[in-house]
Each structure stands twice: as C-alpha cells, then as structure tokens.
Design goal:
- The structure is a single chain.
- The chain is of the alpha+beta class.
- It contains two helices and seven strands; from the N terminus they run αβββαββββ.
- It has helices at residues 2-23, 53-62; strands at 26-27, 32-36, 43-47, 107-113, 117-122, 127-130, 142-143.
- The strands form two sheets. It has a four-stranded antiparallel beta sheet, covered by helices on one side. The chain has a three-stranded antiparallel beta sheet with strand order 4-5-6.
Length: 144
C-alpha cells in the first residue's frame, strides 16, 4: 500500500512539473523566453536578462541567431506609421510584428543609429525607440 501512495505522489509531482513547463515556452536552454511575432507567427528568443548592445549581439550569436532588425517588422501599407522604418526618424513609427507580442520590456535590435546607438522596440506596443548609446542601457536582446 505504501508503494502505491509513493508512486501516486511521484506521478502527481512529475505531472505538475510538466504542466508548469507547458505554460511558458523557453529558448536558449532556459536562458530566454519565446516571443511570437504578431504578423508572421515566427518564434523569437528574448533573453531573460538585460545587457548592453554589444553583449546582446554576442548573446544572439552564441545561440546561433541574429538580433531582430527593423526590416523584420513585417510592414505593409495597410498599417499606419510603418513607412520610413529604415530612416533615422524610425522612433516615430511602430513595428507591426511585435505589436501585442505580450512583453513590456524594451528589446535591443540589430538596426544601428549612427556610430554608437541602436533601436529598441517595446514588444507590448510595437513602439520603436533608441537607447542613447550601446553601453548606456541594459535591455534584453531579441534574436531571430
């Protein structure tokens, strides 16, 4: 009888662990969280911790990926504020691919501004911004 109780308890614990893993999809051996693109459905990997841009670039490279760029925003003429994403004024635009992607943090992109800055995107709103320098901010990278 004791064996049955022990076996039942072990099965319950194991099933609850499996259920917990199913609620949050991870990437990079658990060091990142999957973000699904709103337009394409592509699964991107966002690091679970912030870092400067140089380390973000290296982190994506280390997991065999590249930083998300503004070209990955999946723009079309039917979405407002999308024209001109490749310009310096991209801060005034939105990234449709990451609108409502379910995360509130800014993420680093691989699209640079001048010699020492890169664009950031807020995955919850798709809003594009800048960090003010490669080393001035700590944000997680978004890798593709």
């Amino acid at each position: 009888m004791k064996k049955i109780f022990l076996l039942s308890g072990a099965l319950l614990i194991t099933s609850s662990i499996v259920m917990a893993d199913d609620t949050i999809e991870t990437c990079a051996n658990g060091m990142g969280t999957v973000i699904v693109g709103t337009v394409s459905g592509y699964k991107y990997c966002r690091a679970n911790k912030g870092m400067n841009w140089w380390n973000a670039y290296a982190w994506c490279d280390a997991i065999g990926k590249k930083l998300f760029t503004l070209e990955d925003c999946q723009c079309s003429d039917t979405i407002s504020n999308c024209a001109g994403l490749g310009s310096v004024n991209a801060r005034d635009h939105l990234c449709p691919e990451l609108m409502n992607a379910g995360n509130e943090w800014y993420v680093w992109t691989g699209t640079v501004i001048g010699k020492n800055d890169a664009y950031l995107i807020t995955p919850s709103s798709g809003k594009i911004g800048s960090a003010g320098g490669y080393t001035n901010s700590s944000h997680p990278p978004l890798c593709k």
